[in-house]
Write a structure and sequence with these properties.
With 213 residues, the chain is mostly helical. Helix content is 43%, strand content 7%. The structure holds zinc ion.
């Protein structure tokens, strides 16, 4: 298991050299940003407490024991705890109402396996949403994001999943044919583009541009 990200600057430097050779990356995000991301990604619910005081479950934090001068040991303790938690869920029924995105993330998502959209508390803030804005501004800002997420239910990935998120052909065959024919226009258009990366021209693969992932 790679724990280089959790070790000190010596390991960080070796890792940076490695990525420079492999991917050509010249710079990487600041140390503080990596630390904030790490805590937010792994303890998002605790970090989000300020956003959603009333929903914050202090019991989940109480189970963890952290010490301010033992970062690496804290990471290992956290990993042990989260592995136990994940394994204990193996025989439980799937909780379809469980949030997959923490409240402090400024983003929105569509989950095709559950056919649902997530709008965390942090994305429902100015300038994207404000209860005092005129409706026109809210529709134009958060409204366009809601529309974007909604279309994922019908895009080249989402169309394979039905209203319960199960993978099933639920479109009429004529609709599928027309969808594929129209997609071909986009594929053709993007096949004609080239992108210059580190002094070299690369042809875009139009098929890969059809969805976000
Ligand atoms: Zn999207």
């Amino acid at each position: 298991m790679n724990r280089a990200n959790n070790l000190d600057a010596r390991f960080d430097k070796v890792q940076q050299d490695f990525y420079r050779e492999i991917y050509g990356t010249k710079s990487q995000s600041a140390r503080w940003k990596k630390c904030v991301d790490y805590v937010n990604n792994n303890m998002g619910m605790a970090v989000s407490a300020l956003y959603v005081q009333e929903h914050f479950n202090s019991a989940s934090k109480a189970k963890l024991h952290f010490e301010s001068d033992k970062y690496f040991e804290n990471v290992i303790g956290f990993l042990r705890n989260s592995t136990n938690k994940t394994q204990s869920k193996l025989y439980d029924e799937v909780d379809r109402d469980k949030w997959t995105v923490v409240p402090s993330v400024v983003n929105a998502h569509y989950h095709r396996y559950r056919n649902l959209m997530s709008f965390p508390a942090a994305v429902l803030q100015s300038p994207l949403f404000n209860k005092d804005y005129p409706n026109s501004l809210n529709y134009g800002a958060i409204g366009s994001i809601v529309g974007h997420e909604l279309t994922h239910g019908f895009d080249s990935n989402g169309r394979h999943h039905d209203s319960n998120g199960n993978q099933r052909l639920w479109w009429h065959p004529n609709t599928i044919d027309r969808f594929i024919a129209k997609s071909q226009c986009m594929t053709n258009q993007y096949n004609n583009y080239t992108v210059r990366v580190m002094g070299e021209d690369h042809k875009i693969n139009g098929i890969l541009t059809l969805s976000e992932v």
